[in-house]
């Protein structure tokens, strides 16, 4: 996984949006906003993912497959929806099996976007309460495992004054040492 600051230039969300020269985001920076990731080779991944799932109490999982070829006409609208800035009241855990894409996470308090370019073998944990968005890249294909504890609370809450006051948002800010 490569992590770098998003350039904020207009243009297709699927483009890399990497500054020239690139401005990498360090592991310390990701740590400071509580974004976690591991690399687990896809070949023979199952026992290793099982071990992580057990340790973090993820009892359930499913597989998602997003592609332009598979979705047809609704694809362009769908990826615009994924790209709306939102938060969840639960962690978002993804293990990339095939294809690639970009998770953008907000650095707080700077409010800068950090782009996480994910590839097969990346296991990413985005904490509850962090503002983020997702897009496929120009390959228009990703296949990923979603891991979750019981019933996932994956309803996207689009960023607003209301989400700024959401208890999960406030708990997140406290956890990273920002805000009240
Ligand atoms: Fe999300």
Q: Mind explaining what this structure looks like?
A:
The protein has helices at residues 27-32, 46-55, 68-71, 75-82, 161-164, 167-175; strands at 2-5, 36-39, 60-67, 86-87, 92-99, 101-106, 113-118, 122-126, 132-136, 141-148, 157-158. The strands form 3 sheets. A 5-stranded antiparallel sheet has the order 2-8-5-10-3. A 4-stranded antiparallel sheet has the order 1-7-6-9. A hairpin with a 6-residue loop joins strand 6 and strand 7. By secondary structure, the chain is of the alpha+beta class. The structure holds fe (ii) ion. Keywords: Amino-acid biosynthesis, Cytoplasm, Dioxygenase, Iron, Metal-binding, Methionine biosynthesis, Nickel, Nucleus, Oxidoreductase. It catalyses: 1,2-dihydroxy-5-(methylsulfanyl)pent-1-en-3-one + O2 = 4-methylsulfanyl-2-oxobutanoate + formate + 2 H(+); 1,2-dihydroxy-5-(methylsulfanyl)pent-1-en-3-one + O2 = 3-(methylsulfanyl)propanoate + CO + formate + 2 H(+). Fe(2+) binds at residues 86, 88, 92, 132. It comes from Macrolepiota fuliginosa MF-IS2.
Question: What is this structure, in a nutshell?
Answer:
The chain contains 6 helices and 11 strands.
Structural class by secondary-structure content: alpha+beta
Query: How many helix segments?
Result: 6
Q: Rg to the nearest angstrom?
A: 16 Å
**Beta-strand segment tally:** 11
Sequence stretches where pLDDT stays below 50 over 5 or more residues: none
At the first level of CATH, the class is Mainly Beta
What are the defining features of this structure?
180 residues; alpha+beta; Jelly Rolls; 6 helices; 11 strands; 23% helix; 32% strand; binds fe (ii) ion; RmlC-like_jellyroll; acireductone dioxygenase [iron(II)-requiring] activity; acireductone dioxygenase (Ni2+-requiring) activity; metal-binding
